[in-house]
Amino acid sequence: MDLYEYQAKELFARHGITVPPGQVAATPQEARAIAAEMRAPVVIKAQVKTGGRGKAGGVRLAPGPSAAEDEARRILGMDIKGHTAHRVLVEKATGGFEEYYAAYLVDRANRTLLAMVSSEGGMDIEEVAATKPEALARIPIDATIGVDLETARLLAARAGLPEDVLDAVAATLVRLWEVLVEEDAVLVEVNPLACTSDGTVLALDGKITLDGNAAFRHDHAALADGSDDGGLEARARAKHLNYVKLAGQVGVIGNGAGLVMSTLDVVAYAGERFDGVRPANFLDIGGGASAQVMADGLEIILSDPDVRAVLVNVFGGITACDAVANGIVKALEVLGEARCPIVVRLDGNNAEAGRKILSDAAHPMVRVVTTMDGAAELVAELAAA
Ligand code: GDP
Ligand code: MN
């Protein structure tokens, strides 16, 4: 679960990281009132779960209450990379600071935790990473040892931060590590990590991704955000389906994590012969592939605009293939016309009966294939067409 900036800053503050004083507003009038109470210039910041707000005009300075109201009016409702700003953070403006970058994250490829620190923080960190990798220190952290002051100071020094800020930054890096560990986050990022001329180190921005698997250990429920921008993942979650977005063109539905994972592999493999077609997403309908579950699943998969063909790969077990086939037929009745071809491969319990149900239904968009490789081949070809 990703947090909003203001929520991340709340957690930072709980762990002793300095953040500017601020409050969230949902209307321009509220923003004005907060600014008036602050009696100082403020920054108005769109609260959306995506980066690049500054470049999109979602972070604006306001010298006083009426400017705060105006800027809030401009930002509220703004669309930033598909996320609508329903709220703004009104924060006391910080002046005169250097911008650094600090993050800890799970480095899956190297099976470790990774610290990343840079002396060149701010809005162009992606570019720094791409064009000046030496300005971004990347250091693996042993989870059983963690980050103490000495390691933190080394991190900051390796990143090229000036000598006179090393101690203060190191103290913040240790606290940031505590946020990762104690809140069970898989990512904590501060960009910019600001150092003011009087030596204060503060988090001017914050990003936290909490590990949902550890939710039971925490009282983080208040941080959950029911709206979640109405994304497909949120819609799937509401229907108790496991949906994951990927970058390709083939929608994948299967039952059981193992089958779904191997389906992704065969689709990607077959796709190599068809313009590099790859899975666009996947949805695990689990054991009970009832008609309703299949309808919900197909509806979500077909709502992904990247999907150009769908592969339904089901191995009948306790839920037999004839039930699954009936589910697909009913799902297509509920959905009306499918907007792209659906390739179905059924195997296992009552596979013959299931295939017969589908061929009798003779839906123009449904193609039944008996083998998994054959189905992957056909779906890749259809998605590339
Ligand atoms: P992002 O673009 O989504 O990463 O949003 P940030 O919160 O990082 O803000 C973008 C940029 O706005 C930062 O890199 C800062 O340069 C600037 N900024 C943010 N807060 C303040 C502030 O209090 N004072 C000043 N002068 N600039 C700020
Ligand atoms: Mn930022």
Describe the structure in your own words.
This protein has helices at residues 5-14, 28-38, 65-75, 125-131, 149-158, 166-182, 232-238, 257-271, 291-303, 321-335, 351-361, 372-384, and strands at residues 22-25, 42-46, 59-62, 79-80, 83-84, 88-92, 97-107, 112-118, 136-141, 185-196, 201-203, 207-210, 242-245, 250-254, 279-284, 309-316, 342-348, 366-368. It is of the alpha+beta class. Helix 5 (149-158) packs across helix 6, helix 8 crosses helix 12 (372-384) and helix 9 packs across helix 10. The chain is built from 12 helices and 18 strands. The chain is elongated, with a radius of gyration of 25 Å. The chain has 3 domains: 21-92, ATP-grasp fold, A domain (Dna Ligase, domain 1), CATH 3.30.1490; 97-222, D-amino Acid Aminotransferase, Chain A, domain 1 (2-Layer Sandwich); 232-384, Rossmann fold (3-Layer(aba) Sandwich). The model has no long low-confidence stretch (mean pLDDT 93). The strands form 4 sheets. Strands 7, 8, 9, 10, 11 and 12 form a 6-stranded antiparallel sheet that branches. Strands 13-15-14-16-17-18 form a 6-stranded mixed sheet, sandwiched between helices. 36% of the residues lie in helices and 25% in strands. Strand 17 (342-348), helix 11 (351-361) and strand 18 form a beta-alpha-beta unit. Manganese (II) ion (MN) binds next to loops. Mg(2+) binds at residues 191, 205. One of its GO terms (biological process) is tricarboxylic acid cycle. It catalyses: GTP + succinate + CoA = succinyl-CoA + GDP + phosphate; succinate + ATP + CoA = succinyl-CoA + ADP + phosphate. Heterotetramer of two alpha and two beta subunits. It holds the Pfam family ATP-grasp_2.
